[in-house]
């Protein structure tokens, strides 16, 4: 029996386990969306192509609307990619530890999962990429950048090298890209089998909306549109995405605030008896040195602070992951962690 994807939802005072934004979207966004609700023709189906939203996203990224595909969260984007390009008789390559849904969705659609490992420092091991690609000839190869759960970002040189190795699509999952110094979007063109996926859940403070998208060659998007269910993206969600794009400046300010706070949290962590991985995302992976990770997770929970226990993930024995929250939330976490490690 296959298990589903789980992230514990516990009633706590400080929840730092799901990489959500700690900040609500601007009040003006909420007001504009509320006004838009009254203008929706609820007795009509939504725009099947979500064209207006695709136009706005294309303008944001400097691509054509035909290169943009939108869906119900980046997970549905990944699902439609797998339904279109993978499935029975084909393989999907992942490099653990990484985002669990890459392999989960591949299995659900009947693909073989070609699993490679990362290097000892959890960076992408190009020799391992070469091995997996040579042995399995994957239809889709996933690279998560910044990687979840490590927070490590792949360089342009690494992505270009992987592109030269894979026989099928290279999908770069950039759910946290706005926190990072570089994006693979600059490499997307009509002649390159590269797909970059994004989400509104994190930096846009819209996790409740479940809205995601990808940028790819037009020929990839055309195939996805043959597979996706009709009218899959409702009118309210399309409106929310369009309106959010009126607030790019506010989104960038929230990102800047969280990047600064991430630096403060990391500086505090490196003074504690924990191993810390460099992060270009809105979370930080760490491993307690002097105490069992499960015990530290429980001790934090006893202080009403919930972080992600990654100990069961491949290669992450004893590791925990904290989402960067508000200054007050992070102070609560740091105080609870010091107590747990004492």
List the helices and strands and how they pair.
Layout: E1 14-16, H1 27-37, H2 51-61, E2 68-71, H3 73-85, E3 91-96, H4 100-108, E4 112-117, H5 126-136, E5 140-144, H6 156-165, E6 169-173, E7 194-199, E8 212-215, H7 218-227, H8 235-244, H9 248-269, E9 274-276, E10 283-288, H10 293-302, E11 305-309, E12 320-323, H11 327-341
Parallel strand pairs: 1-11, 3-4, 3-5, 5-6, 6-7
Antiparallel strand pairs: 2-8, 7-8, 9-10, 10-12, 11-12
Walk me through the structure.
This protein has 342 residues and is α/β, with parallel strands linked by helices. It folds into two domains: 14-24 and 249-341, Aspartate Aminotransferase, domain 1 (Alpha-Beta Complex); 40-245, Aspartate Aminotransferase, domain 2, CATH 3.40.640.10. Helix content is 39%, strand content 17%. It contains eleven helices and twelve strands. It has a seven-stranded mixed sheet with strand order 2-8-7-6-5-3-4, with helices on both faces. Strands 1-11-12-10-9 form a five-stranded mixed sheet. The longest helix is centred in the last third of the chain and has 22 residues, at 248-269. The chain is globular. The N and C termini lie far apart (41 Å). The model has no long low-confidence stretch (mean pLDDT 96).
């Amino acid at each position: 029996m296959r298990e589903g994807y789980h992230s514990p939802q516990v009633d706590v005072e400080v929840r730092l386990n799901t990489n959500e934004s700690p900040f609500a979207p601007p009040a003006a966004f909420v007001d504009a969306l509320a006004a838009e609700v009254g203008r929706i023709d609820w007795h009509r189906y939504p725009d099947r192509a979500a064209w207006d939203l695709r136009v706005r996203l294309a303008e944001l990224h400097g691509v054509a609307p035909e290169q943009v595909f939108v869906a119900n969260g980046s997970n549905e984007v990944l699902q439609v990619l797998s339904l279109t390009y993978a499935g029975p008789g084909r393989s999907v390559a992942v490099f653990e530890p990484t985002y669990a849904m890459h392999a989960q969705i591949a299995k659900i659609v009947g693909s073989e999962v070609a699993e490679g490992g990362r290097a000892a420092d959890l960076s992408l091991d190009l020799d391992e990429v070469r091995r997996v690609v040579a042995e399995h000839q994957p239809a889709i190869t996933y690279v998560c950048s910044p990687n979840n759960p490590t927070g490590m970002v792949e360089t342009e040189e690494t992505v270009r090298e992987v592109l030269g190795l894979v026989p099928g699509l290279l999908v770069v999952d950039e759910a946290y890209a706005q926190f990072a110094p570089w994006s693979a979007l600059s490499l997307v063109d009509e002649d390159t089998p590269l797909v970059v996926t994004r989400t509104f859940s994190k930096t846009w403070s819209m996790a409740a909306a479940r809205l995601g998208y990808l940028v790819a060659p037009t020929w990839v998007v055309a195939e996805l549109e043959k597979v996706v269910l009709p009218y899959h993206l409702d009118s309210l969600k399309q409106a929310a995405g369009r309106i959010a794009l009126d607030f790019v400046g506010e989104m960038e300010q929230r990102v800047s605030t969280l990047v600064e706070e991430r630096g403060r949290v990391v500086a505090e962590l490196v003074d504690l008896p924990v191993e810390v991985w460099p992060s270009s995302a809105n979370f930080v992976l760490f491993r307690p040195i002097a105490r069992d990770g499960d015990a530290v997770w429980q001790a934090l929970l006893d202080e009403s602070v919930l972080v992600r226990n990654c100990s069961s993930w491949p290669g992450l024995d004893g590791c925990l992951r904290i989402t960067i929250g508000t200054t007050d939330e992070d102070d609560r976490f740091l105080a609870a962690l010091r107590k747990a490690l004492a």
